[in-house]
Amino acid sequence: MIDSMDKENREIFISYILPCYNMQNYLPKCLESLAKQKISEGAGIEYILVNDGSKDGTLSLLKEFAAKDDRAIVIDQENQGVCAARNHGLEYATGKYVYFHDGDDILTDEASQLVYNESLKNTPDIIIPYAYSVKEDELDKKFNWNTFGEKYVGHYTTREFVDKINRLPVSVKVYKRTTLVNNNIVFDEDLRVGEVYTFFFHALAYSQLVNLTNGRMMNWVMRTGGTTIGYNIDRDREIIRTMHRIDDYAGIFTFDIRSKLSYQSSLYEIVSVFCIGKYKKENYTPEIGQFFKDVIKDKQFKQTLIYFVYKKYYSKRRFLESL
Length: 323
Hints:
- This protein has helices at residues 27-35, 58-68, 82-92, 111-122, 158-164, 177-182, 195-205, 233-250, 261-273, 286-297, 299-302, 305-315, and strands at 11-20, 43-52, 72-77, 97-100, 106-107, 126-135, 142-145, 154-157, 174-176, 209-222.
- By secondary structure, it is α/β, with parallel strands linked by helices.
- Strands 1, 2, 3, 4, 5, 6, 7, 8, 9 and 10 form a 10-stranded mixed sheet that branches.
- Helix 9 crosses helix 12 (305-315).
- The model is unreliable at 1-9 and 316-323 (pLDDT under 50).
């Protein structure tokens, strides 16, 4: 096992792309987990650390880490948003696989070796591992975070995967870089919510093989005061835009994914994980009422399966009928 060696003597196996904006309070634990990564000899690791115009000490921490670990490079750019930062990092990546990490999350010590071992089985386009879901500052209290369950662990063609799984997972994913590059798959910089999921869905449309493993790769730190808490009309309008994009990507698949239960269940997940489904009649304001009316009048939305899933979700609560 090795943790670093001259780049000319190794082939980069995995590129970790880390976008950072004002993350100085979380980065030390994240960077510590990067420093601990090891992988089989002959395979390399690289860290592409993208400072997205931070105004705190983030850039200094990234440069300090890169000075100590020759596997890391630092990209400093003006603030353009997390999607642009990820896309910029992808341009620099040379690994066979890429993983988009976040500055407040923590890799398990075995993360890189886990991905390497999984890749040897059938060279999948997407690898989906388990992760821990942990509360902030309580890393000793670990909970499994996944959306598929151990009974689904295995290797699938994309169609087998969509047929087998009960819901397309929102958990961590590792991507074969050539699948992304050859099909121009990047993060949608015009989306403000759900861009990680639309990226996965876009990549899945061009993938041949998907592996689900019960190996655990990452600690996902749940911060208090997350963006999904509370009512936010502007954000929920953005969720509708995200659903439009998902429907666009659904048309790329070589089979009818819209008819699959896993696809439809995923739409329910998008509705429920944010707050669209949490507006109760007694909480209606003119703004909320107008929001629902806008949804109903959305011609593109009404032409898609997403609309019917959405309408079914609300009809159970008799919300739409009251408008």
